[in-house]
From TrEMBL, chains A, B, C, D, E, F:
Coiled-coil region: none
Keyword Metal-binding in record: no
Residue span(s) of domain Carbohydrate kinase PfkB: 5-314
Family statement drawn from the similarity comment of this UniProt entry: Belongs to the carbohydrate kinase PfkB family.
PANTHER family for this protein: 2-DEHYDRO-3-DEOXYGLUCONOKINASE_2-DEHYDRO-3-DEOXYGALACTONOKINASE, SUGAR KINASE
Source organism of this protein record: Flavivirga algicola
Name of this protein: Sugar kinase
Keywords: Kinase, Transferase
GO molecular function, a single term: kinase activity
Gene3D superfamilies from the UniProt entry: 3.40.1190.20
Length: 335, 335, 335, 335, 335, 335
């Protein structure tokens, strides 16, 4: 009775020197990450049964990704091996007024050339509780768009609930109409939507009202609910102060009840993978049947806490996240 | 006419990567530290004659601790060698809302199995001015509790002044009554007490009044003075904003005169060893016969400055600490 | 139908600097290793189903060991969590005339305080093909000696074959009679013995004849066969030239047939875990039903190849080991 | 039609460990830097034609400086090789209340023993648009003071505009009268002056009025204009909050028009080379004929942005600096 | 009157840890390398005028390659910028019986999608003395094969001599007939051929005679001379002992005179880029008009010396290579 | 009753990357070393009372040298502080046919500008057993030459035995006659001479006979004995195979008895400081009154063993060196 996530995992290369630049890096720190594998690793660390499904090249770099996934306790038995390469991206961690930046080199990756039929999805999804997918995978290629939709449909058909994080990678789409068209189809098969105000504006030109980011997010979540006909939505709220400091909150709407989380001002060590930490935290809370307030509170604490951890992976335990949720944010040493 | 400190020095292992986690560390940075050896190294760097007394295993790791101590100019000639192991601890440096945390592996260390009689304390303490001990050593084992008390008594008898930092490591004590009982006996032989509001509450259930942390500390220091019958007390004041930022002050009471230091808002590089920096700074000021205001000001400047230095050791020179004390805290480059 | 190994996994700390010394190390490289877990990781990398059974403390360091084991694909579901600490050892990698050396700090580890009854061995061993144990675990404590023997007996009873590597850690035994006594009992439950000439001499005072190390090993293996009444024995042969260069071979005796492998002169990157690589290679060959010559050849190639890999773990794939076995040892670049 | 800068480039050694101290550094990070070479590298990264002129020893360290300069695309064809050593300096990066500090070891460097006549300046300066020099070079030695003045005069004579950054290194001058005397002569040959309120006070005892640092800088720039008879002046404004945070602005006066830039609050990664980034940005704007507002705005954005980049070199592209100038300082990730 | 090389430069990622494996690397060391750029950097370090021509993506990784090339003093003014990605490869440095291995990820690189017409080759080649190309570029794509041939023809027509290193990357060709066909056309435009016995066998099934590798190479070079109608040929000779030790020599034939170099037994730090060091050394000798013996001797010394240097680039100076050529190979310290 | 050594300690900078080059180093490893301080650290590690006398600048780099010296247990109480700089040198560690090389930047160091009268040598030398000096210090400056001679004379006068290592740094002397002249004067005050065949030839044009290096060294030692009128001489014998491998021996002559040590073939990690390890080992043996054979055997074992240790310092314990002396050179792991 576990979780399945499906998508791309990439080789992430980050200049090893603190605050280093890509163009003069002498060493790159190595991580393997991607939205859906990040959700998987968080769920595994929270002691859930999780499998991650993707396709990886049959070489030592693909093996590296496998080892990384396994280290968290993620099941990798249904990962296809083959294709030509693993997608790669290079990250510069920003600081203060200097933004973080990403150079992608992900075209022609193994998963982007994969089709739905390569894997036996009925076997993969049997007995699963939740499927997690994101808006990135459909952007990778036509076959990936088809596969993502078919996986969602298959899950639905089999009684596996579908959660969808509407990530929108502008540069991967020729036209946002393409994104809208495939997202619409996925949303018809979605039980739980993760998102935020910005992505709804970017993809659906959805205008929101409200005097502050929280109110705007409430407005957005209500519009999304009615527009897409969904009953479960969980949105992150991010106020940018600088590359080093953000204010973070969460808003969720479940079966007509809207909840707002605490807000956290955090100094940022690594901003990547934070939305994934939120999604994993929320799914974990649902799995634990914690009720909406605790579930959103836990998800938002995870979201905030991830900003203080290097790499895309959120490696905090349930106990550590709950401690933040309970308000232990003033930094007393734990001995 | 120097200083002697007695206690445990441990191997401190910290993930080498900035803000790294213990569970995925590929490298650990190596320090050797402990409350009493930290006080010794600070005093040595401030150009005092200092010896540190402990017991270390006769192997390469014990040798590493010896080399570390010697590098600061600490006399190590009275360190016993033998026993089975050096105590070890693992540190995760927190950041923002994420607290620092410590995993201890210190049971069965050489010093914890040591007895008072293993060393010739009369020779060791001959001609010394100050002994520094802390509440940690009595917590290590029954023989350590006995030894600490006997060392304090011997010092007293020989005219060496005794300073006692009432550190309280909750997890090392079965019952706080045990701590209270040995602390009471030590306090009878104490000339100068280091502490803070929290520890008095934890160990002695001492309630304090006051609208703010400074006032509360004044209240605490006065209660401690009357309760324990002491004439010299120096307390740190810490206000936690987050794991990355604290507000720091000091309060001291000497011969009925109470003084309050400046306060410092500091961003934290490494929070460990800061109380030890305060104690060393205070002892140094007494040794220099600077008078209470300068002594407390210097100790508090050292306390604050240590937060910006990696490792448990406070490696700042007297000139650097005095410069902070004089108010040079706006970061002009020293060329 | 897989493999189960049982024993201690430790935190291995190696000075990060190439050829660095423990007493002046500024950083330690982190590995988690132990004879039985090394065998498990090799078998997992060779794509076998493997589980490793041990006890680990419930803290971040124990979590680190878990993550390391999982990264190789080892099943960790039957690892007990609890106790006080993980055993630790420090390694200096030797070079040329300077020997490698080890400082152990393994007393009081979680597994050393563990009893047979803490785990449900009948469930653990159900359906397993091979159990692997070594002579190290019985040396850790009385309860470990009992547990090891009981595990072997349980396996035997359940039809799981028992392989035993007669590792002998001199410093862990008060008297070698103690080792002999427990080894005797284990040998009565052993199907396959791993060893070498030296250990038989050390533990059993077994004298061997022969003009060269290979002949001496044949002599030893035959004596062991008759002394212990075993049908399957596989021994390593090591000729020390220096800390940087060894000559390596293997000898095996299966059902009265003795075979000798090729010999390899290797330059050594890391000498640790090499016997474990041999055992894993041999078990893998048996599992693949390759016949004695290929099985021994593969095991010896793995034994030799491991010397060129840093860390205790042998991370070579089956293809890489087979390539050595086929004689590709002249270093042509694989593109 | 490019830029020429002339001065000293040094070996900069910075403890590799984040926030490390010189006296216990195990590794030093290596940069090659100096005010005039920093201006050259910024200009080269901004895709200008730049040459840097200096003298470097003919050894592997001198070669290292050459490689560093070339890597940015700086022309090094007119660098003299010879002399005895490269100047060296050691840096401790401050944090919070702890100031950054510098230990110089630059006496007897190759350039300090160089004379004007060693190079053919008429050939070097032919067809150049701007010469950049600073107040540091004249401080190195008598021959350097003479050379700097002669280079400025030669440039003037040949129609190359002269920009002069009035850096004042207190410890390099016996008496500030010496500095004033050579600065006066250089200023007679200067077209564009870089400076700040502090240096005018230090060297010329120039008192300024104004309620805040911006107003004080306007006052200083107007006094400098009338005192030195200059038409182009660009000054930085720095408000120190701590070693980790500064508020930064710029003020310029061109042909009787005074402009004030935006201000930036920045968290500091590396404070060194920031004034050089300002000068390079200003010269770049003039070269692009951007007009005063954009030129000063760009220079100040470069000044602020450099604080977030490790090393003395400002490695940001024109696009990155313009983005800051346009107000993108809230740290949105660039994908 | 300089050298032009044309081909692909790639991002080389090597596990940072000495002898590390790709699948568990935590950090990758960064180099930018490729056969033709390696020849360019060697020639530049030998103080020749060199330009390198390629196509690089317009992102921070492409900028990194530019900075690396410039650091050696290579002219990069004719490098096209654009396309989608830089080719990448991962290297495991072998040791002893463990071979080095390479994982390529170079498909779809900017240069592989480039055409001859994108650059103005007549301008590029004007006044050049030598063009260097290799057999790798034609293997990248059809357009690259065409471009390489057209570049060679253009050079020939303009009086620029053409040197061709017959590198053969098996995995990049569908059929070796394709290689042969394009190589034949290039050879018609070749003045100087670099190669070895192996490549002639692989591509042309050319059988050689001779009792030892030197004699076999003489046989190969004579056959190549008559088969291809060439007057200048320089071949490397490599005898593999292990991944850590090779014996290296050179054989050249110029205008009917055959010469054999000294042989060197070397321990290998990094085996990559060694053939390129040979080619650069030979071209340098021709440029210096040293005569055949010194030219081949220098090239072979460079070939051998490169094996002791990390990275693909041969960074030795002319003085250092000449010293090897003169027989200073016993390792006396140079002070 | 201890040892005093007098001379220069320098900052040693070595590229951090294994086998790295100075001209492209991104990080330098930091050591503090010099012939006389190396002898002091070896003697301290061997548990002798040792003081090192020199002059160091009063800055953080000088403090670093102090901390390094103290870490070994060397007394630093008689080190003068002041002057302008610490001498610096850069090292490239050679490998195979590539020699190690050194770039010195030591002119104008604090000690080079020091005079005999700055220190109270009678107090320093009171009660000492041995003084150790070398031929390097007299080469630093005229005042150093005078000081070295006066120190030797003072020692002699006070009954402290003088040992002199005739190091000859060619590049520090204008004419070898200058060296000969000061060496002659020192030799008149010398009790024990360290040297080798090469230095006698270089400085004194002393020709030796003998079929092999051992015989030649015997010849040299006998000539030196008669030429200089000495009774105690200990010479190293080095046969260079490559930068990675040397054969090492020792020859000593005491009171007319000549002894030859075992020879060791070693693979070299770091060749620097090896002669100093020999001298320290020999002095230690004399101090222990071991007799000539064991003393020379120990010194030569130390000499050989140091080649396998990084840095100039020989950090082996007496037990480790004795083990080599006893023939344990085949690399059995010490557990």
């Amino acid at each position: 009775m576990g979780f399945t996530t499906f998508g791309e995992i990439m080789l992430r290369l980050t200049p090893s020197e603190h605050a280093g630049k890509i163009n003069s890096a002498q060493n790159f720190g190595v991580h393997y990450a991607g939205s859906e594998s990040n959700v998987a690793s968080s769920l595994a660390i929270l002691k859930n049964q999780v499998q991650f499904v993707t396709k990886l090249p049959l070489n030592a770099v693909g093996d590296g990704a496998m080892r990384s996934l396994q280290s968290f306790g993620i099941s990798t038995g249904n990962i296809a091996r083959g294709g030509h390469r693993i997608g790669t991206y290079f990250i510069e961690i920003g600081s203060s007024i200097r933004p973080s930046s990403v150079v992608y080199d992900r075209a022609h990756s193994a998963i982007s050339e994969m089709t739905f039929g390569e894997l036996d999805w009925e076997t993969i999804l049997k007995g699963q509780k939740w499927l997690f997918i994101s808006g990135i995978t459909p952007a990778l290629s036509k076959s990936c768009a088809e596969a993502t939709l078919l996986v969602a449909k298959t899950a639905r058909k089999m009684g596996v609930k579908v959660s969808f994080d509407m990530n929108f990678r502008r540069t991967l789409w020729k036209d946002k109409k393409d994104a809208r068209s495939i997202f619409d189809a996925i949303l018809e098969n979605t039980d739980l939507l993760f998102g935020n105000t910005g992505v709804l504006k970017d993809v659906y030109d959805m205008e929101v009202s409200g005097a502050n980011p929280i109110d705007q997010t409430i407005s957005a979540i209500e519009k999304a609910k009615s527009t897409f006909g969904l009953e479960q939505l969980a949105f992150t709220v991010r106020e940018h102060h600088s590359a080093s400091e953000n204010k973070l909150s969460g808003v969720a709407l479940l079966n007509d009840k809207t909840t707002i989380s605490n807000s956290y001002n955090v100094e940022i060590i690594d901003r990547f993978g934070t939305g994934d930490a939120f999604a994993a935290g929320f799914l974990h809370g649902l799995g634990q049947e914690w009720g909406l307030d605790k579930t959103l509170g836990f998800a938002t604490a995870a979201f905030a806490l991830k900003h203080t951890i290097r790499g895309d992976q959120h490696t905090s335990t349930e106990e550590e996240i709950l401690s933040i949720f309970k308000g232990n944010i003033s930094g007393h040493v734990l001995r």
